[in-house]
Amino acid sequence: MKVGIMGLPQVGKTSVFRLLTGNGVTAKGRAGIGVASIPDDRLDRLSEMYRPKKTTYATLTCIDTEAFSPGEGVPRFLNGLQDADALIQVVGGIVAEDPAAQLMAIQEELALVDWGLLDTRLERLRKEGRRVQTNGLELSLLERARSALERGRHLRTMEFSDEERRLLQGYSLYTMKPLIVAVNVDDEASLEEYPGKEEIARWADEQAVTVVPLAAQLEWEVAQLPREDQGAFMRDLGLSELGILRVARVVYTQLGLISFFTVGEDEVRAWTIKQGATARKAAGKIHSDIERGFIRAEVVSYHDLIELGSMAKVKDAGLLRLEGKDYVMADGDVVSFRFNV
User: pLDDT band for position 29 (50/70/90)?
Assistant: First the structure.
């Protein structure tokens, strides 16, 4: 799961990258890549129960792209975004920086790039249509998508059939990717009120975008404290949770992701899968051999395991289920896979 981070110069883009990943500044002109571990209270509780040698959190790969300077020609920051599953645009939330104008500077550029790609492909399809039978579905689909961009509508807001989505996925269109607007403010008071808030919220609602205010520098400082001391400082800042959790929750929701857990004395681990994934697909997330040789999954809900206190009590209560390959995984499932290869 990859998230690309973009923004204008001096808006705190790299501060947000550091908050999410713990990594510092990278060489100028190069995209920084870091891995964010996603805190999960459920995993912490399971780790307390099993006391494993290792606890492994779900992760989010973050790409800190080069800052975008309007008028530079083909934006270099796009190089780090093409393979991203979701995008984060950082805007500086102070009066002098006009957050709404920052937002539109990049979003208009992304829409223009998508429009150009679609227009070029449409022209090629029409030329090929004189010699070979053109794919009518693709032609009408691209015309509809291009028309939407011309009306100022981003493609993530449109309804597409499964077949249409498969066709569009090959183009890696930026305005189809889930987008989070991270408004980076200087102090805790500005998390609730910042310049351009209503304008940004209105645009975000129209374009199916989520806005997440962050005080990246302050939250980074809190994140460096011992975990037992973080709560008091977060309450002083009016925060219920740190930025990585707020961002991860939005990414999971927008990408349709859930977590399942594997437990044992060696390792307690969180795994990320698509909502609707089957037990066999989830097994493949761990190893392809487990997917190929899948026999069954032994499943208990996280809440049942925590409430009863041990796997032995779960079995005694008859709450450990044996599920086949087509079982649809639920968020919070604790699973042991049986397989033979």
Answer: very low
Residue that wins the pLDDT comparison between 21 and 76:
21
Chain Cα centroid distance, residue 292: 28
284-319 pLDDT tens trace = 999 999 999 999 999 999 999 999 999 999 999 999
Question: String of b and e for 31-42 (b: at least 16 CB within 10 Å)?
Answer: bbebebbbbbeb
> What is the CATH number for 315?
3.10.20.30
Q: Which of 29-38, 52-61, 195-204, 327-336 is the least confident region? A: 29-38
Residue 305 inside a domain? The answer is: yes
At position 189, the amino acid (one-letter code) is A
Domain total of the chain: 1
Q: Could you tell me which residues come within 8 angstroms of residue 134 by beta carbon, excluding any fewer than 6 positions away?
A: 125, 126, 128
Rounded CA separation 7/10 (Å): 8
How confident is the model over 187-223, as pLDDT tens digits?
776 778 888 899 999 999 999 999 999 988 888 888 8
Q: Are 31 and 2 in contact (CB under 8 A)?
A: no
Distance between CA atoms of residues 13 and 105, nearest Å: 15
Looking at residue 105, its amino acid is A
Query: Tell me, what DSSP letter sits at residue 159?
Result: -
Residue 196 and residue 205: Cα distance in Å, rounded?
14
Distance CA 255, CA 235 (A): 30
6 within a domain of the structure (yes/no): no
Domain hosting residue 289, numbered range: 276-339
pLDDT for residue 132 is more than 80: no
In a domain, 5, yes or no: no
Is-contact 268 55, C-beta < 8 A? yes
Does residue 112 lie within any of the structural domains? no
Distance in angstroms (rounded) separating the CA atoms of residues 12 and 338: 47
